[in-house]
Fold this protein.
Amino acid sequence: MERSDEARAHAMSPLSPLLLKTKHLIDLLEQVPEEDKYDVWMERVQSLLNEREQLLQAHSADLTIADQDVIRKLVADSRSIDLKLSVEHARLGVQMGQMRQTKSTRKSYVDPYDEVEGSFSPYFDSRQ
């Protein structure tokens, strides 16, 4: 019977689940979601962030006595996560700006034929 990554992490160290969630979050942030699956991807990122935050709070006492290498890794990983989230935030800002521009362009377009009646037939020669 094989144990999952999380089960192995619990057996190794009190901080192992936190390190594992952090790794999963970084892996997920490195993926480029397809547009139609973006909402699911974002929900998963939010879920991992929440779980990681809960683990940080639950293991705050363990962090005070943890090995300095583990703490350095968590700090470096947190910076990496922050950078990846900042990049995604900037990308979304650009995308929203483009959508707003497209929307305002559509609103400002004036159809030159809007007030013209639908029938031009009296102005054209007709062949019979």
